[in-house]
Amino acid sequence: MSALVDDVIALLGALAWYNLCLTVSAIAIALPVACLFAVARLSRHPFVYYPITAYVNVLRSSPLLMIMFWAYYTGPMITGAPTSAYTAALIALAAFEVAYFTELVRTGLQSIAAGQRDAALAVGLRPSQAMRLVILPQALRRMLPSLLSQSIIAFQDSTIASVIGVTDIFATTNIISAREQRPIELYTALAVIFFVLCYALSRLVRMLEARVNARTAGAG
Amino acid sequence: MQSLDWLLLFRAPYGERVIDAVLTTLELSLISWVFALAIGVVAGLLREAPLRPVRLAATAFVEVFRNVPLLVQLFFIYFVLPRALPLPLRQTLFAFGWEFVSAVLTLSLYTGAKIAEHVRSGLNAVGVGVRQAAMSTGLTWIAAQRHVVAPLVLRMIVPGLTSEFVTVFKSSSLAMTIGVVETSYLTQQLGLQTFHWIEASTVGTVVYLLCAWSVAGFMSLVERWTYVPGLLRRGAAP
Prior knowledge:
By secondary structure, chain A is mainly α. Chain A has helices at residues 2-41, 46-61, 64-79, 85-111, 114-122, 127-157, 169-180, 183-219. Chain B is 75% helix and 0% strand.
């Protein structure tokens, strides 16, 4: 029994060190980029609109695994600079989440009434200031539940990094299970760890969603 | 860097393998999609069932499959589930392509759980009034759900279903981890064996993009076919 406890501690260590770090850094990179891209998706300049729209469409239509192959194998072959599996996974996850976050932020921007922008311009703000100081903060607050839901999915997706050789919680489970020959306990532990974390987080998001809806219902 | 050799993808021995792998991706995704749709619609409707244990079971199914990563589910079903069987039976299972069957099983359950969530938000949007009206005309709960509520809900959630349909193709790439020789598996094999990574990952990506765009095109046709004028606002789905 105590061996299993040790194993679970090893799994949690891998979870914190790889999956959690990977997800948090990917989101930290993806969110600011997604805000820029979302503004670009609403732009009327074809040179801004089309490349960004194409990026979002292509990345959302490819499997994360394929993007990880590009980041780990193909990219370094083109540039000639070898990348560690962790860095490649981080780049791939961030690039992938940028596409999803862009669409979420764009929906959020569009949900802010046009009157807000007019009012901001009327008090003398430049269009870029109106976007940065007035529209974006409100949109992000309104989109917070969707952004968090997407982050939970990103956290689950971070296990895919094990395919290109990151020793995350999933790879660690495979290693320990092969060594100790008891896959039932280990894979059950793995599933339970994810279920508890993701279920708790998704309940929190649901509560937050109810609060945001209650607050924005009156503001229309 | 070596020079590009695009013909590599069509020459023996890789030409046939590329076609086989793409066909496997299509089979895996389409079969899983059919099962997932059935599972998702039933589970989604049962979350409103008049019996509490049924409701709880449907909710538990959805929450478990939504909150555990697909990769973990895949290994659980492929690797752990057969351990419940006696050894000879287990060996037969693996001899008969268990990796493909378990990939279909996992993808169906995982996607089914996500479809069930779409169905539930569709139910919320339709409201209980429709079902109550149907039941007041003498239909049973099942008949009301089947003939009145489900046709409405399914029309409402077409955009959500489109994104799940695209996701099935993307998720099927994970089947390579349990040894199903589909497009991602082939991409990695091709890259590792020939070192022509650019050609390999390009062909893999293009296959998935074509799948995704075909599905999106097909589903927008479905949306047009199933559209009932005046019944629902276009794009009113949650």
